Every structure is written in C-alpha cells, then in structure tokens.
C-alpha cells in the first residue's frame, strides 16, 4: 500500500508542475513527505509517525474536496480564477490543453491594435473537459487517502497489541525462567548447616550471638 500512495502522489505532482499550479504543488509536496514519514514509521516500528499520517489523511481529503469544488465551480468558486496559482500567473491545469483528443491551435492577433506579437490559443476536439479530469484525480486521491487511513489504524492497533502483550522481563512467558528466591540468606545458611551437621546447630547459634 505505501508504494501505491507514493506513486499516486508523485503522479499528481508531475501534472501540477506541468500546469504551474503552485498551491497544489505545495500541498502535494507536503503529502509526499507525510507519506514517506508514515512508511518510515511502519518499517521502523514507530506508531507515532503512523498516527501523524492518519491525521494528515483527513487534511488531504479536505484539500481534495476543495479542488473538486473549485473545478466544478461550487460555492462561488471559478475554475478560471488564479486562486491555485496564488494570483501570480494565469496558468491553468495542464489538462486544459493536453487532454485526450485535444488539439491546440494558435492564431496570430497582430491585426488587432495593442495585441501585436501576441497569439490566441484555442483548444478543440477534447474528448473530456479538463475540469472533469481534475475531479477524477482528486476523487482517486480521496479514495487512496481513505484506504491509507484504514491501513494506518490497523497497523497502529497491531503495534499497540504487541506492546501490551510483551513482557520486557520474561518475554511472553508469565513465569520467568530465572526465578528469584525470596528466602533470607541467613535462613538458607542455617538450613544447609543443619543438613550437614545436625548436632552442631546449637554451636552455630552461639557463634551468631
């Protein structure tokens, strides 16, 4: 599962880089770091790192729901706005010009005053509008995040059960192999002397006094 999560995050990052979508690029970068952290926690037996990943999945799901609302223009959002580029460029999704079946055409605008040396780019023939491709990407990320959350909870529960059942002194055996004798040393010495010298026990007591 962790390798699948990483591949999905890297794939999303590549296409956001191609479209100069700075906000998604930053979010994807954080997501990749947290996924690596969760993988490290699984391999190195660090439940806290896995808990961090589980918490992040909730944030990641929320972010992808926002992306879906953005491209579907829900709640006053507009897919043509510069919100995802921090208002520093007018770039759109890479899929807007490179989607399946899309044909990109450039028409010179030199005949229009004030627009010399500029060109108008039109995209025709797209089999699927780019916003639906972005929505499918985000929906897939949500599905992966939910699977990752369930997987993280399962791993944490397994680690917790192992820690609770393991006895650091005697292992899993409730009766340790090395049993400590609680009898006083002086009493053991007297019993040993009595076995060896039954008649001399009174003399030993006189010496101890």
Helices and strands, with pairings:
Blueprint: H1 2-18, H2 22-43, H3 47-71, H4 95-98, E1 103-108, E2 119-124, H5 130-165, H6 185-196, H7 201-208
Antiparallel strand pairs: 1-2
Explain what you see.
59% of the residues lie in helices and 6% in strands. The protein is mainly alpha-helical and 209 residues long. Among the domains are: 7-72, no CATH class; 131-169. It is a multi-pass membrane protein. It holds the Pfam family NKAIN. Keywords: Cell membrane, Membrane, Transmembrane, Transmembrane helix. It comes from Rhadina sibilatrix.
- What is the percent of helical residues? 55-70%
Low-confidence stretches are 167-185
Give the beta-strand count: 2
Beta fraction of the residues?
A: 5-15%
In order across it, which strands form the biggest sheet? 1-2
Mean pLDDT: 79
Distance between the termini: 75 Å
Task: Report the C-alpha radius of gyration, rounded.
Answer: 35 Å
Biggest sheet architecture: 2 strands, antiparallel
GO cellular component, one term: plasma membrane
Subcellular location: Cell membrane
Pfam families: NKAIN
Membrane topology: Multi-pass membrane protein
